[in-house]
Amino acid sequence: MPESRFLSANDLNLHYVDWGGAPGPPVVLLHGGSASTHWWDWVAPELAKTYHVIALDFRGHGESQHLDPPYHTLHFVDDLEALIHGLGLVRPAIVGHSMGGHVAYAHAARHPDSVGALITVDSTMDLPAGVLDKLRERAGKPARRHVSLEAAVDRFFLMPPTEKVRDDVRRALGAHMFKQESDGQWITKSDRRSSDRELIDVPSLLPTLSCPALIVRAGKSTVVTPESWKRTIELIPGAKGAEIPDVGHHFILDHPEPAHACIHQFLSTCEDFAA
After folding, report:
1. Cα–Cα distance, 206 to 21 (Å, whole number)
2. Which CATH architecture has domain 3-126+200-267?
3. Rounded average pLDDT over 65-90
4. Residue pLDDT, tens place only, 152-164
């Protein structure tokens, strides 16, 4: 069973979930923006049959501590590095979904000795200006308040709203995404202000990556275009690509089988992770 734990680092408490799987090689799972470790609840159990699986809540997300803005990609990079060193993980595979992939790219460039392999899952290397504007607009609005957890889950949706998952999965996930305030109202656990985050120029970093890399795209993604996916693969030396047909951006939730199969298959080709 997964264990919920905390690590004190970078002047805050970081939450992570340890799915076990030792003594297999370590694999660290990174969630997307406004998400949490629970995005991996459907993939992690299968991965933990082979690897020691850890899922991190970035600062301002899930059970990790909130700090005053600004939030910066490099803050998330620092938190990931603190987790790796704090737990004594030796060159783990880093698997990042959406924003988590963006952080993984930056981390692999800044801390090449800390990464044994890199897998990004439907993660764009940069965001169009229009998307950034929408994220900043969202960050400036107060969190919605709900009279009950049931009411909060009823209104819970994924971003972007065009990306749908099965309703039973959406509701199971939503049950983890809210907290009760002192007045009895329920609000999202993620800090909305983290949507207005400072990015870095990831495309310029990609040619410097030296670890084995797999770039995965959801076939029906509205986040990563085929052109951007192909360009990312071209920029990373020796990178491989995989496209999973007929699934959307959040397929790790309701189509976990092709997700963990893809991860397993790639890691089996990497010297440090081959069974």
Report:
1. 31
2. 3-Layer(aba) Sandwich (3.40)
3. 94
4. 999 999 988 778 8
